[in-house]
Amino acid sequence: MSVPASFREQHARLADELREHDYRYYVLAEPVISDEEYDRRMRDLQDLEQEYPALRSPNSPTQRVGGSVTKDFPTVSHDVPMLSLANTYDEDEVRDFHRRITQELGREEVTYHVELKLDGVALSVRYRDGALVLGATRGDGTQGDDITANVKTIRSIPLRLRDEADPPAYLEARGEVLMYKEDFRRLNEGREERGEKLFANPRNSTAGTLKLQDSSVVAQRNLRAFMYSLPGTIRGVATQHEALEYLRRCGFAVNPHRRVCGSIDEVIAFWREWEDNRDTLPYEIDGVVVKLNDLDEQAELGSVAKSPRWAIAFKFSGRTARTVLKDITFQVGRMGTVTPVAELEPVHLAGSTISRATLHNEDFIREMDLRVGDHVVIEKGGDVIPKVTDVLLGERPEHTTPFHFITSCPECGTELTRPEGEAAWFCENAECPAQVRGRIEHFASRNAMDIEGLGEAVIDVLVSTGLISSYADLYILGNRRKDLESLERFGKKSVDNLLENIEQSKQRPLERVVHAIGVRYVGQSVSRLLAEEFGSLDALARADREDLERIDGIGPRIADSVIAFFQEEHNRGLVTRLMDAGVTHTREERKDNHLPFFEGKTFVLTGSLSTFTRDEARSLIERAGGKVTGSVSKNTDAVIAGAEAGSKLSKARSLGIDIIEEDEFIEHISELRSENGS
Asked: How far apart are the C-alpha atoms of 223 and 210, rounded to whole Å?
């Protein structure tokens, strides 16, 4: 059905008006019309789109109400990793951070941008030609979940960028999604009335809401978002402060409580100010984030495996409460570590009810002289993990007795050992049921092999019935189909789904497999380094200490752990069985053709490129066989300089390093771009 021009004009006018009112209400907090008037205009727009469906677009204001239902959330890759921040609670460590910054940059004075650390869920949003095309979670930092339908319901995230910002053809912004305290209270009140389980705190409710499969439910929960990062290069944006101002002009909500600080003393004063005033805000914060303000300086310092070197989270001290230690129990981890746990009289603390807390190890209990029956103080470290911080000796009941650590494993009865230099006791029995379950749970977890349907309860059944005793056994479960179908709640369809999900996991990339096999101290970031460096499980198994320690980010402890893992016959057998089953054991080779100009050379990018974002240029260089670093040194082969290049250009000239202008860079890279259809 063709749409009359007058209705097209009316639709465009209403859509523009509603976008402007969303911006004024959710970003500026300066509404100019009543809620009733806003609702009337929205109904008019909905009526137009119902009569003329051709007017409806993915970025129409009517799409804020949600309605789409998804069965799953596709995985998307982050062009630039979404790193986590190193954190501290200690003023002296913040001053140490400042000293490291000034030493590495070679100057005494730097400027910081300090922002509130919002207690929410990290989010990435992407725009093409000004329109929202993707919303994604952080995930493991390199890959997250596509939650675009749910993100569209968040009214502080524009469906279209504002024209006044003159946005580029492609833009990515990152920030934090959160739920205000009052909205959280109302949500839990409703759940309580319906007899549903309550959320522990606003952060948990936000995380749960973003992963709901029905976006119309998400729309009812009034999530908010503040953006704080602009990963790409934008002309005229040279500082973090300018980046946030640019995001604000684009139509994003940017937290107003931020400050440019010319000294570390000003940073600490800002932290103290908000530690005293955090309860005055309508949302939760748990500290401040300290960032170098200059974006070139950020790039010069770069990142370590998990976090940027130019930023730190300066967190507030935890909230405390008093309760009673009713008992001390023990849990066995997948690596055999035996951890004591405090069983507490339930107490409300920082938005949740606490009944258990970690006691770390034997030395911790002994040093505090903790006894069952004691009155204790508990704290939420970072407002997240509960721990016992003090014993109220003046309130100790009579007839308490000193606590003695157990000598045998609570799961299998094996005598515990405590290696020299270690604080923890270990069960060395590789067949201990708790360890077996823990290793399989880790192997199947989302950030490892991501085997859907293989949760804790299913693993418990499979282990307790003897169907599996290791993660390698998962890949021969197809031979036990009748045994599986005979189990309670394991019908034919559920067995088919489980076996299919296990089969699909064989295609996970090598870095996931390295993480999944469970080498102590080897997390996701280190797994990526090992997969990239060695390229196969065979090569990794043969690596010696020198091979491992030459990798930036891997020290003696990790190297020793990798070697010890592959020296153990049981572990080698498991890995061999995985390879025999067809699990990925080599890294997929890059298909790009390296170019002689770039191959084996080290480049530094500085200034603003008009043709590419900095991340796009980095990707092209790496595909051509080159390497990109953040700082200029005698090992740099060339500096690629865009407009408004800064101190890195001056340093390159002083060292006699080749300077490549953008036109020359385009000429060199054009062969690769044409081969790849770019």
From this structure: 9
Contacts of residue 273, Cβ cutoff 8 Å, sequence gap at least 6:
none
Tokens describing residue 546: 């020198």
Query: What is the architecture, at CATH level 2, of domain 602-675?
Result: 3-Layer(aba) Sandwich (3.40)
Angle at 652 between CA 648 and CA 657, to 5 degrees: 145
The secondary element (H helix, E strand) that includes residue 320 is strand 320-332
Residue matched to tokens 């603390």 = 349
pLDDT the model gives residue 264: 95
- Per-residue pLDDT tens digits for 222-269: 999 999 999 888 888 999 999 999 999 999 999 999 999 999 999 999
CATH of the structural domain 320-395, one choice from 2.40.50.140, 3.40.50.300, 2.170.130.20, 3.40.50.150: 2.40.50.140
Count the neighbouring beta carbons within 10 Å of the beta carbon of residue 596.
11
pLDDT per position as a tens digit, 108-138 = 889 999 999 998 999 999 999 999 999 999 9
Side chain identity, residue 390: D
CB atoms within 10 A of CB 301: 18
Active site residue 117: yes
Encode 250-310 in three state secondary structure.
Answer: HCCCCCCCEEEECCHHHHHHHHHHHHHHHHHCCCCEEEEEEEECEHHHHHHHCECCCCECC
Is the pLDDT score of 381 beyond 60? no
Catalytic residue among 71, 117, 326, 648: 117
Please give the DSSP secondary-structure letter assigned to residue 594. P
Structure tokens that stand for 448 in this block: 């490892």
Q: What percent of the chain has pLDDT over 70?
A: 94
Torsion, Cα of 612, 618, 619, 622 (10° steps): 140
